[in-house]
Design goal:
Layout lengths: L14 E3 L6 H26 L6 H19 L9 H9 E5 H25 L17 H23 L1 H4 L3 H5 L1 H20 L5 H11 L7 H20 L4
Parallel strand pairs: 1-2
Helix pairs in contact: 1-2, 1-4, 1-9, 2-8, 3-4, 3-5, 3-10, 4-9, 5-8, 5-10
Length: about 240
């Protein structure tokens, strides 16, 4: 996370930067986000459909461990966002440009669809749901609120892990950043699984939905995470950055 792509070393504060060099480096970064998100959806969907997980805690470990490994692998390539809500939060805090956010989001969604499709092709007869859905007895308002709060927590942790000023005060903070991100996904998946399967990542919801044609309450898994991502990153930027 310490290698997060930023516009300029001094770029900070709330706002949106528009300027971006559409060079080969930009497209390589977008490709990194696509590959990383494809791997995330492939690993998690395969674990679920193959019967490799048998409980909520198994599912949480799969998502948490996958994000830990992939954040470590892609942090130095593209920043390791693998999540439109994270990219959106970085954009609002001027860590990346609007064009990079758009490129990352499109790449993440495309990668998520490809990863899910490949996982489904390995076991096309499986009827195990891999898409997010509001559980019976849970209102969409409740699920929306859970997604906002869950992504707020995730975004706050991600911003803290990517804060180079804090990392410079203690070397172990940068080293442990992928662990912090992975454990955040683990805890959130465990807590929100019974509400809506836990998204906190629009691309993670989009991939399985487009592959399986399941769109019920899909707006929840975009509006909630994007709002939560902006709130979490903005609160960190305004009150805690560099402290």
């Amino acid at each position: 996370m310490g290698d997060l792509k930023t516009d300029t070393p001094s770029s900070h504060g709330i706002g949106i930067n528009l300027s971006e060099d559409l060079n080969m480096g930009f497209f390589k970064d977008c490709a990194g986000e696509a590959v990383g998100t494809a791997l995330l959806l492939y690993l998690t969907a395969t674990a679920v459909t193959s019967g490799g997980v048998s409980s909520a805690i198994d599912t949480a470990w799969v998502f948490g461990a996958s994000m830990l490994v992939l954040t470590y692998a892609f942090a130095g390539i593209s920043g390791g966002h693998l999540n439109p809500a994270v990219s959106f939060g970085h954009m609002v805090n001027k860590n990346i440009t609007a064009m990079r956010c758009i490129g990352y989001t499109a790449s993440q969604c495309a990668g998520a669809a490809l990863g899910t499709a490949f996982a489904k092709s390995l076991d096309s007869e499986s009827d195990v749901a891999t898409w997010n859905a509001v559980t019976d007895g849970t209102g969409t308002g409740t699920a929306f609120g859970a997604e906002v709060m869950g992504t707020f927590a995730l975004s706050f942790v991600v911003m803290s892990a990517a804060d180079q000023a804090r990392s410079s005060k203690s070397a172990h903070l940068g080293v442990l950043a992928p662990l912090a991100v992975g454990m955040s996904y683990f805890v959130l998946q465990l807590g929100m699984n019974g509400i809506d399967g836990c998204s906190v990542n629009p691309a993670r919801s989009f991939g399985p939905s487009i592959v399986n044609g399941e769109w019920d309450d899909h707006w929840v898994f975009w509006a909630g995470p994007l709002l939560g991502g902006v709130l979490g990153s903005t609160v960190y930027e305004l009150f805690f950055k560099g402290n």
